[in-house]
Write a structure and sequence with these properties.
heterodimer; A: about 475 residues; alpha/beta; 3-stranded antiparallel sheet; 19 helices; about 45% helix; globular
């Protein structure tokens, strides 16, 4: 009979909800109380004042030399952590794999919220996204300690921090302190299939106008071939960030400029709309289901991050070696130097609650700065000396048709700094508002107002003052 | 039809047998109830009470009256989430009531018992899958490149997974998942309810010239009305708490579904991303009120609990 089962089912759902509430309840009981009001604004200001006051008072918990450290890493970075363990067998490590905050996941934040309430359970070292640093560098409630330890306070020598690529530690910094070490940067470059372009007699574009003209040409002469795709969760970072569109521009620590009507945004939307309607740019994502099988071999150009080479062309599309090459970022009319975007690039953080800060810091330093790890890392190192070693590594060069070093090195210094690291992911509004509109056949230009509204709402809910001009 | 007699007698006997025991009571009864009562207090009543407490205080534990409710109701995600859930509920309840009753009537009256039993078993199977597993099955069903229903999806003009999960389609998709997992069990319940109708009544109606549809509409359905109301109340309560389906679809589609599609998801975001447990509690109290009002209306309109008095 269904009735008992139905009741169980209903009860199951109820118990799930009640369990959540119970957790919340228990957690809140344990943790006591926080700011005067629970609105994010107040929490944010409390957090701000907390970190201002707490900046000098980072008090580590009682240290236990040689105690076990818990490391949370994503599956891509897991081999690196395991390699460290192998090289340092005396360090006691508990390695946990999780999603690494990829694609806007908030798993880490959710867990830390709970650990802050229960007062235990924090991992010692985590791999996360730059977005994670925005909340991890501030207490989740007054009285709590910010999750991320300020690494510049007697943990990592300033000399080491100074060696990171220009601007690459900006997402790690808050209130004059550095809360993370950048693992990799994902500077956006122009990827192209050299074999196809040579065969068809096309020149590699250097400006956006060239790119548009070539896209239309490809659509006309070789229907079915693509010069880009906008349907991924991070396509906005490749295109709109490169266009210097003020979509996520922090003009002050708590004031966000969101102005998608700006010419720097509409120029990109117009360009992409033309290419989309000519079917030279796909509204699907490179990483969306079925794309690699259906169109992977038909991608002539892709404007995207430095990891596209290994992860998109080599792993996902199985493009044979010796075909793919990278060119420096494209310029707009009137520009002498290009500005480009950045798609991800993870960070390593050390927990301020760690009982073994030394081991944790050693691990993070080794992971981000050592040639032993970074020269063979899957992604482009943020630590400049390691990046040189990375580019010199034959495995990072042999796949490509030409040397990617000039394009990578130039792009690493061209990342536009006006696309700020906000407390909320820049992917949510793009994925849940703009992409469904494109799928429904609307133009990007017509979706800009809805995108602006979505970002504005999200920013306000996270306590920002929003300026739409 | 003679087959059904023992069953009916058994029901009558058990009803008669229960009556005297009810009066005599005894410690054994309390013992049996104790386990459930304790768990209910710990995981049902206490959390509900605590949610009420959280919803009228702020994070410092100060009384704030209705401010938490006003705050969440003014949140930009509140109205869309409740609109989504209401559209979903209306579709799901209408489809559930119409189709389960229709199928039960057909299975009960228009089919050989063996075949009917086979169908009831088949309808029931999906319900045996756990919630998450059934959503995973649907992720495949909804992707045109792997779906067994790919032709249908293509014919409807949806050539990719992302086109299938366009925002306008979501209530229909969640309704289909809910129906697929939940309806089978209810068909079995409705079938059982139809079995409880005395054969004399059916025979009398047939003798008076009632055809199968007339019989169903004027005799069978009115006689199982309270079962239908019971089903509606439970389905309504479960439906307002929709969480796993949109949450998984959001993850699987790489965020093409809003992370706050349903009110329960909104409460989750409030609690675990904004760290605002009081706001989350206020949303859950809204949901509780919605469920109670819905149940109250149905109970009052249908005399659900007057069964024992008859």
């Amino acid at each position: 009979m269904r009735s008992p089962i139905a009741t169980v089912d209903a009860r199951h759902r109820t118990s799930r909800a009640s369990a959540a509430v119970a957790l919340a309840a228990a957690a809140a009981l344990l943790a006591g109380c926080s700011s005067a009001s629970s609105t994010p604004q107040a929490a944010a200001s409390a957090a701000a004042s907390g970190s201002a006051a707490g900046s000098a008072s980072f008090a580590s918990v009682a240290q236990k030399a040689g105690s076990q450290i818990t490391v949370w890493a994503d599956s891509t970075r897991l081999p690196a952590v395991q390699a460290y363990q192998k090289a340092n067998p005396t360090v006691k490590m508990n390695i946990v794999t999780y999603d690494g905050s990829a694609d806007g996941s908030t798993y880490l934040q959710t867990k830390v919220q709970l650990f802050d309430r229960t007062g235990s359970g924090w991992p010692d070292v985590v791999f996360g996204s730059p977005t994670d640093v925005t909340w991890a560098s501030q207490p989740t409630k007054s009285g709590a300690t910010a999750f991320a330890a300020p690494l510049d306070e007697n943990l990592v020598p300033q000399q080491t921090l100074d060696n990171f690529a220009k601007g690459s530690l900006a997402p790690c910094q808050d209130n004059g302190h550095t809360y993370c070490m950048r693992n990799d940067i994902a500077q956006v470059v122009l990827w192209y299939n050299k074999t196809l372009l040579d065969q068809w007699g096309y020149k590699v574009p250097t400006t956006w106008a060239d790119y548009e003209a070539l896209g239309l040409q490809v659509a006309k002469d070789h229907p079915g071939y693509l010069v880009g795709a906008v349907g991924d969760t991070n396509s906005q970072e490749s295109y709109f960030w490169s266009s210097q569109c003020p979509a996520f521009h922090l003009t002050q620590p708590n004031t966000l400029q969101v102005n998608l009507g700006a010419a720097d945004c509409t120029r990109m939307a117009t360009l992409l709309d033309k290419l989309i309607s000519a079917k030279a740019v796909s509204t699907q994502g490179f990483f969306s289901q079925g794309f690699a099988k259906a169109s992977g071999s038909k991608v002539v150009m892709a404007y995207g991050p430095s990891w596209y080479g290994q992860y998109l062309f080599k792993s996902a599309f199985n493009t044979p070696a010796g075909q793919i090459a990278a060119a420096p970022p494209l310029t707009w009319p009137g520009e002498t130097t290009a500005s480009t975007g950045n798609v991800g690039g993870g960070v390593w953080m050390v927990s301020s609650h760690s009982a073994n800060l030394k081991a944790s810091t050693d691990l993070v330093t080794w992971l981000t700065t050592s040639d032993a790890n970074q020269a063979s890392a899957p992604t482009y190192p943020a630590y400049a000396p390691a990046a040189t070693a990375w580019l010199a590594n034959p495995t990072n060069r042999s796949y490509f048709a030409t040397d990617v070093s000039p394009a990578f090195q130039q792009a690493a210094n061209d990342v536009w700094t006006g696309w700020s690291n906000t407390k909320f992911s820049d992917a949510t509004a793009w994925s849940s508002v703009v992409l469904p509109a494109l799928t429904a056949g609307k133009t990007l230009t017509s979706a800009l107002p809805a995108w602006q509204t979505a970002i504005t709402n999200e920013a306000k809910a996270n306590g920002y003052t929003v300026v739409n001009q | 039809m003679t087959l059904l007699h023992p069953q009916r007698t058994a029901v009558t006997v058990s009803r008669r047998g229960r009556a005297p025991r009810r009066g005599s009571g005894g410690a054994t009864g309390y013992l049996f109830v104790a386990g459930y009562a304790l768990l209910l207090l710990a995981f049902g009543v206490f959390p509900t009470g605590y949610a009420f407490y959280l919803s009228v205080t702020n994070s410092q534990g100060r009384f704030t009256g209705l401010n938490q409710f006003i705050k969440v109701a003014h949140d930009y995600r509140f109205v869309p989430a409740f609109t989504n859930i209401l559209i979903y509920l209306v579709m799901w309840l209408v489809v559930l009531v119409v189709l389960t009753v229709l199928v039960a009537v057909v299975l009960r009256g228009r089919m050989r018992p063996g075949l009917s039993a086979l169908f009831r078993f088949l309808f029931y199977i999906p319900g045996a899958l756990a919630g998450v597993a059934s959503v995973l099955v649907w992720l495949f069903m909804l992707a045109p490149d792997v779906s067994p229903a790919a032709r249908l999806l293509n014919w409807l003009g949806m050539h990719s997974f992302v086109a299938v999960i366009a925002p306008g389609n979501l209530p229909v998709i969640f309704m289909l998942i809910a129906f697929w997992t939940g309806a089978g069990g209810w068909i079995v319940v409705m079938y059982g309810a139809l079995n409880n109708i005395p054969d004399e009544v059916i025979e009398a109606a047939k003798m008076d010239g009632a055809g199968p549809w007339r019989l169903a509409w004027h005799v069978q359905i009115p006689m199982i009305r309270q079962w239908i109301v019971y089903m509606t109340i439970l389905a309504f309560a479960a439906g307002t708490q929709l969480f796993v389906e949109p949450q998984l679809l959001q993850t699987a589609s790489l965020q093409r579904v809003s992370p706050t599609w349903s009110p329960n998801q909104l409460a989750y975001v409030f609690a675990f991303q904004q760290g605002d447990f009081n706001g989350a509690a206020a949303i859950s109290v809204f949901l509780l009120a919605l469920g109670l009002i819905g149940a109250g209306l149905l109970v009052a309109r249908s005399n659900l609990f007057s069964l024992d008095d008859r």
